[in-house]
Design goal:
alpha+beta, four-stranded antiparallel beta sheet, 20% strand, single chain, 661 residues
Length: 661
């Protein structure tokens, strides 16, 4: 069996999408960014016609749906024409969203008409929905048309940022009305007797199949790990999310490939993943999801148990806090802080007026990623936005945007603007000159950390692979070949030379890092300092050298067929110890064929086998118990009959004796 490693790397940029369209159409179709910079345009050679349809990917209905969504998200699905044709908008403007992102990604549907009547009785009808692709553009057009028609109604974004609101300035005393399929699509209230009325939640989509996992949880990501899903029949499987999982699609695909009676998909409101129970029969138990290693399920919000047997698990980004009319300000603060949301609630004493105390809610995530939308519903908490989180910006260069580089950061710290350089911005202002010098203390601390990390790994291995003669206790992995292999490769890498480095220093021992008698690395700081002072460039090269000498691409002579040695490989001309250990760890922990991954998979198979044996043994025990109980019941019945016969014989003997007497 040869594992199929042929795979097309995912497109990470718009340019890569453009390049693939050109390459996979043999140059017949050229993609580019359209003139307005809002989407893609396709140009077909020779006056031919271009038409964009969804493919089938892996042949499954899920794969077809993903392909269709990909084409739609690129603004190309259904596009047809000759010459050059523009796709639909995929980029929004400043402070607005695409209409397609509303209602969880389903947009406004086929809305065609909106009729508004103000409280003074004036009305008008708007029908030009097709000409607008952003919410801001549509609202401006509606309000302009209303004003031109003499209707004193305006539609805007509510304070919560999740819905629209209608404002009536006519001065009339009647009811305003909003009707038509456009009113329903925009979530507008049908009627109202006040001058301001808020509509329903528009469910702006925050999550899509292409959303990167690194962007979730306010940019903190979800990490890697495993979690167990138990469906409503009681069957379970482990879902392993490694570093190769990049998008929400990867997570959903992993879950749906486990053969359980569940289906993972982006929920209808577009703010999380829903795990749907697809069991066609009566549910035996409620579906459960629990993290085994790491916190992936928790980070996705799907860790837990369905509310009932046959129920679904909803992993929504939206959190609801229930407030009571009797709650005090302290109660509200406590409930918010106990809800495990990335905000801090507190009470601020403004020091003036009859009600000096105020509720303050601040995001714990800095910058634009820390944006939090709060909708207090029918509870008027009097919330106003006092400060808006923004990313810090830093220009590197002359200050002229045309010739400078712009860097942004969610905090005031900018890392790796220049390799190894970290800049802390103290205040906004004009240009300044930065003097850069080596931080030798930081260098020593980093080297110490490398030694500590390696010693920790070797120490853990030794703990699992030991035998205590006094207590006669064995380590859990004593004699395991994988443990021995991992230890050997770590030691060989630490004792070997940096690859391709020809400077003064090539071995760790030359700069004061060597193995001691106890098998642990020892760091001689004095020797390291001497080596660094002698030739700092050589020390740096020994740790950080990196050079790719060749890369071979994947080939597949027949679609879906893999030939040996056809996977993408990279050869390195120079590698310092930093990347040597990085490459080693990748080889050991690769999610497909890593040494540790294979060992873990084998252990899991052994555990599953033992669980199956235990299950069969339990079944045999149950069968034997039932049989013995039946035998015991039969024996009890037989004894009862014998006792009855004995009693009858005794009575007969007594009667015979009396007759003879």
């Amino acid at each position: 069996l040869i594992r199929n490693k042929v795979a097309t790397p995912r497109a990470a940029t718009v340019q890569e999408v453009i390049d693939r369209i050109f390459a996979q159409t043999n140059g017949l179709v050229t993609a580019s960014i359209n003139g307005s910079g809002t989407g893609l345009a396709l140009s077909v050679a020779g006056g031919s016609t271009v038409e964009v349809q969804a493919g089938t990917m892996d042949g499954s209905s899920f794969g077809t749906a993903v392909s269709e969504r990909t084409a739609r998200d690129l603004g190309l699905l259904g596009l047809s024409g000759t010459g050059t044709v523009d796709g639909t908008r995929v980029a929004t403007g400043v402070g607005t969203v695409r209409l397609e992102s509303l209602h969880g990604g389903s947009g406004l549907g086929a809305a065609t008409s909106l009729t508004l009547t103000d409280r003074a009785g004036d009305s008008f009808t708007f029908s030009d929905f097709a000409s607008h692709d952003t919410l801001d553009s549509l609202l401006r057009a509606i309000n302009t048309a209303a004003s031109s028609a003499g209707v004193d109604l305006a539609i805007g974004i509510s304070d919560s940022g999740r819905s629209l609101e209608i404002r009536d300035s006519s001065g009339g005393s009647g009811l305003f009305t909003a009707s038509g399929d456009g009113a329903s699509a925009l979530g507008l209230p049908g009627t109202g007797s006040s001058n301001v009325a808020r509509g329903s939640d528009l469910d702006r989509r925050h999550l899509a199949l292409g959303t990167t996992l690194a962007s979730l949880n306010f940019g903190k990501g979800i990490g890697t790990g495993t979690f167990r899903i138990t469906d409503s029949t009681g069957d379970s499987a482990i879902v392993d999310i490694g570093s190769d999982a990049v998008t929400v699609y990867d997570i959903i695909n992993e879950i749906n490939s486990r053969g359980l009676l569940v289906e993972a998909r982006v929920n209808d409101t577009g703010d999380g993943i829903t795990i749907v129970d697809t069991n066609p029969d009566a549910a035996v138990t409620a579906m459960r999801i629990a993290d085994v290693t790491g916190g992936v399920a928790g980070g996705l919000g799907i860790s837990g148990t369905a509310s009932s047997a046959g129920g679904d698990i909803e992993g929504s980004l939206e959190k609801t806090i229930d407030l009571d009319v009797t709650d005090t300000l302290e109660d509200v603060v406590g409930k918010i802080n106990d809800a495990n949301i990335r905000v801090n609630a507190s009470i601020v004493n403004a020091g003036s007026g009859t009600t000096p105390f105020r509720l303050s809610i601040a995001s714990t995530i800095g910058g634009a990623l820390g944006q939090v939308w709060i909708d207090s519903g029918q509870v008027d908490l009097g919330l106003i936005r006092s400060a808006e989180g923004r990313d810090a910006s830093l220009f590197l260069g002359t200050g002229n945007p045309a010739t400078s580089f712009l860097f942004t950061s969610s905090s005031n710290t900018f890392k790796d603007i220049i390799s190894g350089l970290e800049v802390d911005a103290k205040k906004a202002g004009a240009s300044t000159t930065v003097e850069v010098s080596r931080d030798f203390t930081k260098v020593v601390d980093d080297v110490k950390q490398l030694v500590t990390t390696l010693n920790d790994a070797l120490g853990r291995i030794a703990e699992y692979d030991k035998y205590d003669q006094e207590t006669e206790k064995r380590g859990a992995l004593l004699g395991n070949s994988t443990v021995a292999r991992v230890r050997q490769q770590i030691i060989q890498t630490a004792q070997g030379a940096a690859k391709g480095v020809d400077g003064r220093y090539r071995y760790l021992s030359q700069v004061g890092i060597r193995f001691g008698k106890d098998g642990q690395l020892v760091f001689d700081q004095e020797k390291f300092t001497q080596a660094y002072e002698t030739d700092p460039a050589a020390v740096e090269e020994m740790f950080t050298a990196f050079e790719i000498s060749a890369t071979t691409g994947s080939t597949s002579p027949v679609e879906g067929v893999t030939v040996s040695g056809s996977e993408t490989t990279t050869s390195y001309g120079r590698l310092g110890f930093g990347d040597l250990f990085d490459q080693l760890l990748k080889k050991l922990t690769n999610s497909v064929d890593g040494v540790v991954t294979i060992a873990d998979r084998n252990f899991q198979e052994q555990i599953d086998g033992l669980q199956d044996r235990l299950g069969r043994f339990d079944e045999r025990l149950e069968s034997r118990r039932v049989r013995l109980e039946a035998q015991f019941a039969a024996m009890e019945a037989a004894l009862a009959k014998l006792q009855g016969q004995q009693s009858s014989l005794g009575s007969l003997a007594l009667n015979v004796g009396l007759a003879l007497g």
